[in-house]
């Protein structure tokens, strides 16, 4: 555990400013939209809060290795401890983001009800009470697993870009396009989507968690021989 502390500290310092800036902008935009909804009764305003958080986590994941690995290697910390440090730090960031998003939705939803603006000011979020018949708990759970999936996916993409450059990312795009365009390869994907929509909440959770474990596991294979210099360094 002591070996993880420098990694967690650096990770926290690296992410703190972007986290504060992101939530400050989102809250400022939401307050402005709310004020406009109060002053302009003929217009409906809305904020896609969950998608904004998903985009933030995706970008943070992609930049994770680039922003932290060179400094950690310069501090003579092993890649093994770095890996577990960013896994723990990533889980913490995703959980904190899901909690913040739940608080955000609750607060602005409460404001909209107080001012009788529920039909003119909408905060977009995943609406379901499938988990323990609780809408907020279901929203938190889904935001947590989707956020973890996106962070791990883009974290792996960012690590691959850091070590190998654009080649693996372009290869992944070409393979994905081939799967989409080829009928016999597309068929299993269609069956997977059909399976997901049978029970969206539980199946999305299972799929996102399974893929997150896979992506985090693959991340170790990418960074365990990464150097202090990125592959695309000029």
UniProtKB/TrEMBL annotation:
> Keyword Cell inner membrane: yes or no?
no
Question: Which keywords are on file for this protein?
Answer: Membrane, Transmembrane, Transmembrane helix
What species does this protein belong to? Caldalkalibacillus uzonensis
Question: Where is the organism placed in the taxonomic lineage, from the top?
Answer: Bacteria, Bacillati, Bacillota, Bacilli, Bacillales
Q: What is this protein called?
A: ABC transporter permease
Span-the-membrane segments of this chain are: 20-39, 51-69, 81-107, 137-157, 164-184, 204-223
């Amino acid at each position: 555990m002591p070996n993880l502390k420098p990694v967690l500290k650096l990770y926290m310092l690296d992410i703190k400013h972007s986290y504060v800036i992101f939530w400050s902008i989102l809250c400022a935009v939401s307050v402005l939209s709310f004020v406009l909804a109060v002053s302009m009764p003929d217009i409906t305003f809305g904020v896609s809060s969950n998608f904004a958080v998903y985009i933030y986590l995706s970008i943070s994941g992609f930049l994770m290795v680039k922003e932290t690995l060179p400094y950690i290697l310069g501090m003579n910390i092993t890649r093994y401890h770095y890996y577990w440090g960013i896994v723990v730090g990533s889980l913490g960031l995703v959980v904190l983001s899901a909690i913040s998003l739940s608080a955000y939705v609750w607060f602005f939803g409460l404001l909209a009800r107080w001012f009788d603006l529920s039909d003119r000011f909408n905060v977009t979020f995943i609406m379901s009470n499938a988990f323990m018949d609780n809408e907020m708990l279901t929203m938190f759970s889904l935001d947590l697993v989707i956020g973890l999936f996106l962070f791990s996916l883009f974290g792996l993409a960012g690590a691959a870009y850091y070590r190998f450059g654009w080649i693996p990312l372009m290869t992944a795009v070409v393979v994905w396009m081939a799967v989409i365009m080829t009928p016999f390869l597309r068929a299993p994907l269609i069956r997977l989507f059909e399976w997901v929509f049978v029970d969206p909440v539980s199946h999305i959770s299972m799929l996102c968690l399974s893929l997150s474990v896979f992506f985090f596991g693959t991340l170790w294979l990418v960074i365990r021989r990464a150097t202090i210099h990125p592959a695309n360094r000029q």
